[in-house]
Amino acid sequence: MKKIISLTLALIMFISIFSAQYVYADTSDSAILARIEDLCDKLENTYFTKDRSTGCGKKSSGHGCANCLTSNIVQASWFKNMFGNASTNSFANSYGKDVNYTRAGKSCLGFANFAEWYIFKSSNSDVISTTKIGTYDFNYNNISKYAKIGDILRLNNSHSVIYISASASGINVLDSNFNGTYNCMVDRHNISYDSYSYFTISRATNRQISPEEPETDKTPGKPALKSLNSNYWSKENITFSWNSTANTTHYNLYLYRFNGETYEWIENIFYAESGITRSLPAG
């Protein structure tokens, strides 16, 4: 008879490592939608302009006028009464050119940068930054694959919107000054896929990508070998079996023989299946 060797099961798993980042506010999909709906309640069907009673009416130099320049809007009494004191230096810069100009923004761009700040801030002093995700053909497959609620979408590099949802026929958005009408009216509406040919996504850097999925423990379970004896006859078949464990892709079996003082390697069995048998030499 021989003494059974020491047995070890090695677990293989894949680990994703995420860099930590400071999150200004609850950025779950439900929280983002609540902020968007709050903006709709406050601003939909009104002018996003300094005087709030009129739009631009016509295109001026630099696309828009002083009435729809966001740095002027934040100084208006109606804005302060509704949103408090705010600086365009804290707003998103989704366009990527001159920061002072595009953060202050006019018409659709200025509103989108302001809305992104409002959606993702927790206090008025928070500075919200965005990062470019990519540019894609404007269709349902790409929208559903790449866009997330709360993203700024730049359509054909001519119109900026806050993305809410998508259907097979188009997207639902919150924006200002839709279709270059120069009226600076805030509206939640649908845009069909045949209206534009491509879009660019800008996303708040503090947005959670999969916020609705609760964090779960990804550590693999620890298997235990079942029904093993301490001793076996020479060349007797030995069955190695165990119960499946969570978060485990496969099992490796390492066989060693213990001679009373040291371990002697016998065999490595990779991708082993429970119930495998081996006949081991005496020792």
Structural class: alpha+beta
Terminal CA distance reads: 8 Å
Principal-axis shape equals elongated
> Taking strands numbered 1, 2, ... along the chain, how are they ordered across the largest sheet?
3-8-4-5-6-7
Per DSSP, what share of the residues sits in E-state strands of 2 or more residues?
25-35%
Low-pLDDT stretches are 1-24, 211-215
Query: What is the helix content?
Result: 10-25%
- Record field, number of beta strands: 13
How many helices? 6
Largest sheet: 6 strands, antiparallel
Order of helices and strands: EEHHHHHEHEEEEEEEEEE
User: What is the CA-based Rg, rounded?
Assistant: 30 Å
Mean pLDDT, nearest integer? Answer: 79
Task: Write up what this structure looks like.
This protein has 283 residues and is α+β, with helices and mostly antiparallel strands. Helices cover 19% and strands 28% of the residues. It contains six helices and 13 strands. It has helices at 29-43, 70-73, 77-83, 99-104, 107-120, 140-146, and strands at 2-3, 7-12, 130-137, 152-155, 159-166, 170-176, 186-192, 198-204, 231-232, 237-240, 250-258, 263-272, 276-279. It has a six-stranded antiparallel sheet. A three-stranded antiparallel sheet has the order 2-11-12, with no helix packed on it. Strands 1-9 form a two-stranded antiparallel ribbon. It is elongated and about 95 Å long.
Secondary-structure blueprint of this entry?
Elements: E1 2-3, E2 7-12, H1 29-43, H2 70-73, H3 77-83, H4 99-104, H5 107-120, E3 130-137, H6 140-146, E4 152-155, E5 159-166, E6 170-176, E7 186-192, E8 198-204, E9 231-232, E10 237-240, E11 250-258, E12 263-272, E13 276-279
Antiparallel strand pairs: 1-9, 2-11, 3-8, 4-5, 4-8, 5-6, 6-7, 10-13, 11-12
Helix pairs in contact: 1-5
